[in-house]
Specification:
The protein is of the alpha+beta class. The chain folds into 3 domains: 110 residues, Acyl-CoA dehydrogenase/oxidase, N-terminal domain (Butyryl-Coa Dehydrogenase, subunit A, domain 1), CATH 1.10.540; 122 residues, Butyryl-CoA Dehydrogenase, subunit A, domain 2; 156 residues, Butyryl-CoA Dehydrogenase, subunit A, domain 3. It is built from 12 helices and 11 strands. A hairpin with a 2-residue loop joins β10 and β11. α4 crosses α8 and α8 packs antiparallel against α11. It is globular, with a radius of gyration of 21 Å. The structure holds flavin-adenine dinucleotide.
């Protein structure tokens, strides 16, 4: 076993780090304050291949592995720990990959090269007001008309990216999870679509959104998204009719794997701020690092961070083994992805809270940016891409046995 990155991975990490120092670091606080990711940042990300990392070169992407994508995600989060930019990136690593795997050739050729070029973005539209955790109960309707087109109606209650997509020159949309039959049949009547809100510069009729006011991780405009008889051509269906549930779960597995890496980057930034602070902040005539009440906390979190980082890399490696080498099972990918999100997100949040305390009163003012990283990671503890208990259910199912856990 060799824990070192190979030379290609090292090179990639260094290149992304250099890019982030130049492009992300000077802008991340402004993005968070403005609540908007500048077009220029996305264009520059696309220029260096960061908008189509896991998309095949056949569709203009980088053919990157999930481990490579995770290394880049860690850097984007470390250099922009308010996370909007890293989250926008991780969505492009996950959901377009699923569209590439299960979408129609026509839709893939149309949309994936636009994502890789930074002209379009794709997110996930799953959560509804009656409970995001129960994906098998979605109510947004997809009805097939006589002419073969689908009509989509209903409401998703928390969906990121609408304003980002609206500002994209070409457009983009969401991997939409919809109900295509008897709701009583739960996961057996779910069909997925690539629902484009904007296509070739033109907004799709019948889609509107109303952003929530996010207190952190601003820049993604998480919104209520409403569909009023939106016409969707069958070429944008992803996978079989009524076969959408399993495909959607694959997307969540990959997104959670990437979230692990994002939260590691965020935690690394927090850890560095803590170490810097305890070395320089003097109270009672000594740097506060000299007090074990402080230094032992750093030791505990440094140990947890090391473990989380290894777990995050292993989750990405597990996804690569399954998707690139055909080794292992989807259950492995689901378990490791859930574990990575569970451990890495809670570590970033717990560390963020501790660093707030280590900074003392200075942490409580906007001039000290620790709160931005802490609260950004919090989005992943409260629910984004799967609430903590749901991740535990997935892990428990794989560890104990599906026959014991519903
Ligand atoms: C910042 C942010 C961005 C988001 N972006 C998106 C997006 O782009 N697209 C999208 O579709 N969604 C998005 N979401 C929504 C997110 O996916 C949901 O919050 C998440 O799935 C949980 O759903 P819920 O909030 O409705 O909580 P609920 O499902 O109502 O759950 C509430 C609580 O009950 C617990 N719980 C539920 N069921 C069980 C059970 N069986 N056993 C034990 N405990 C249980 C949960 O763990 C949770 O603590 C976003 C959320 C946030 C905060």
């Amino acid at each position: 076993m060799d824990f070192r990155l190979n030379s290609e991975q090292q090179l990639l990490r260094d290149k992304v780090s250099e890019f982030c120092k130049r492009v992300i670091e000077p802008k991340w606080i402004e993005v968070d304050d403005k609540g908007e990711i500048d077009r220029e940042i996305i264009e520059k990300m696309a220029e260096v291949g960061l908008m189509g990392m896991t998309i095949s070169s056949e569709y203009g992407g980088q053919d990157g592995s999930f481990l490579e994508a995770a290394l880049a995600a860690e850097q984007l989060a470390y250099h922009g720990p308010a996370l909007s930019i890293a989250v926008m990136y991780l969505l492009q690593c996950s959901w377009p990959y699923i569209i590439q795997r299960y979408g129609s050739e026509e839709a893939k050729q149309e949309v994936l090269p636009r994502v890789a070029a930074g002209e379009a973005a794709v997110g996930i539209a799953s959560t509804e007001a009656h409970g995001g955790s129960d994906v098998s109960s979605v109510q947004v309707r997809a009805e097939k008309r006589g002419d073969g087109k689908w009509l989509i109606s209903g409401e998703k209650s928390m969906v990121s990216l609408p304003s980002v997509i609206e500002r994209m020159p070409w457009g983009g949309g969401w991997f939409l999870i919809a109900r295509s039959g008897d709701p009583g049949l739960k996961h057996r009547t779910i069909t997925d679509f690539l629902l484009l809100m904007k296509r070739n510069g033109v907004l799709t009729k019948g889609i509107s959104y109303k952003p929530w006011t996010e207190f952190a991780r601003r820049g993604l405009d998480t919104s209520v998204l409403t569909f009023q008889n939106v016409e969707v051509d069958d070429v944008y269906r992803v996978g079989e009719v009524n076969g959408g549930f399993k495909i959607a779960m694959e997307g969540f597995n990959l997104a959670r794997t990437m979230i692990g890496a994002v939260c590691v980057g965020c935690a690394e930034w927090l850890m560095e701020r803590a170490v810097e602070w305890v070395r320089t902040r003097k109270v009672f005539g000594k740097p506060i690092a000299a007090y074990q009440g402080v230094s032992f906390k750093i030791a505990e979190f440094a140990s947890a961070l090391e473990a989380a980082k290894l777990l995050s890399y292993k989750a990405a490696w597990t996804a690569d083994r399954y998707y690139r080498d055909g080794v292992g099972t989807l259950g492995d990918v689901a378990k490791l992805g859930a574990m990575a999100k569970l451990r890495c997100a809670s570590l970033a949040v717990d560390l963020g809270e501790e660093v707030m305390k280590i900074y003392g009163g200075a942490s409580y003012f906007k001039e000290t940016p620790i709160f931005r990283a802490w609260l950004a990671a919090f989005s992943y503890v409260v629910g984004a891409e799967g609430a903590e208990n749901i991740l535990k259910l997935i892990v428990a199912r794989e560890v104990i046995g599906r026959e014991f856990i519903e």
